[in-house]
Amino acid sequence: MASYLIRHTPKLSGEVEVSAAKNAVLPILAAGLLSEDPLIVKDVPRITDVDMLLSILRDCGAHVQRSGMDVSVCAMHPQSPDHEENMRRLRASILILGPILARTGSACVGLPGGCAIGQRPIDLHLRGLQALGAQVHAMGGMRQLSGRLTGARVYLDLPSVGATENLMMAATLACGVTVIENAAKEPEIIDLANCLNQMGASITGAGTGTIIIRGVERLHGAVYQPISDRVEAGTLLCAAAVTDGSVLVRGARAEHLRSLLFKLQETGVGIRETPSGIRLTGSAVAPFEVRTLAYPGFPTDMQAPMTVVALKCRGRSLIHETVFENRFMHATELSRLGARIRVENNVAMVDGGTPLEGGVVKSTDLRAGAALMLAGLMAEGETILQDPAGHIERGYQDLPEKLRSLGADVEKIEDRL
Ligand code: EPZ
After folding, report:
1. What is the residue with the minimal CA distance to atom 28 of ligand 1?
2. Domain 2-19+228-416 classified CATH 3.65.10.10?
3. Tens digit of pLDDT for each residue in 300-326?
4. 323 lines ligand 1 (CB under 6 A)
5. pTM of this prediction exceeds 0.70
6. For residue 219, which of 35, 44, 48, 359 is within the disulfide window of CB 3.0 to 4.6 Å?
7. Domain spans in the chain, listed from the N-terminal domain onward
């Protein structure tokens, strides 16, 4: 079982480089199923979610090769995965559905997994593919889809990131024009569209609520450099904020983090955008209110780290989680360190400004795990963060090492506990 020993760290300081975005890289790797020629993705982070997806892509008949930080994916004859149980190991596994259906006219997949932050249904994915002409049959935990795809106008009840990505990929090879209304606008959507267009697709409007995809005969290979990870960047900025530090996060793009930067400035920290990244200095002292929303609203993936920032602020902060129904599991764990947090109807009331005491806490999901690591830096004494499911290494490349390079006293301790 992975565990981390974290000791109080007065101030983080220095510079740290952010990795490529997990939530851009995963759909882009799945897009490799759309092409017989190799899609080469640069700077693919060494995280276990990537390893798991690459294993699923191989199971789908793709040729996958990692060379250093670059990964090549292509598929002469894509097929549905034999080992559907692997689908449960991550949410992004559902992103093989659109490409396989578009290439072969048939796909049979299991339901995806992912952090237990909500029920995580795939109804929007399935209804969207039905609108493109697919027949959908449920067989226990499996979904069998079949049919040649034809362009159509699709309306998403919710601006779902994954459904937008699945439909965009499927529509690239559909016959005719597809319009996705109420599409997700995240930077990762734009990144996927840019990659698909480099592969020969014809997509416009990515980043707006209306995306237009003109179907083409086939896609070809490309070499693509994904965007930097705005959630990792935000997590590192929050680490600086909770230790009154001064940190430059190199590669962070302010235009992808506007809502977070404004909220952090509200707490009293200084934010400076530089050509190489974003620098945060100073202390978070003023309480705030924030609600998570689809992009460009405040990102739900930053809710847990921001809860720890609220613990620094002197007074009551209110944090509304509007995207997922069960994303406050870190509150209970933070209470073990003396945090005063009450959660009612998906609103966390955080009474910050009192010191935290080190203790033993457990990671409940990816972003909660990172938040608890930040809390350990803030808490007096020593904190043991147990991470039996390996959440942190699923989504952050070398987080302890990156924090240590800034002066943090954190180390991974194997199964000694
Ligand atoms: C993506 O998940 C990200 N994961 C999540 O990041 C992120 O929190 C989320 O988008 C929102 O930004 C990846 O990109 C791999 P959604 P996704 O579909 O696509 C509901 C992390 O920590 N919904 O936008 O699964 C859903 O239940 C992870 O890196 C349906 O009801 O998110 C949720 O309430 C966590 N039906 C809301 O929409 C559907 O068919 C948003 O989900 C699909 C979604």
Report:
1. 301
2. yes
3. 999 999 999 999 999 999 999 999 999
4. yes
5. yes
6. 35
7. 2-19+228-416, 22-224
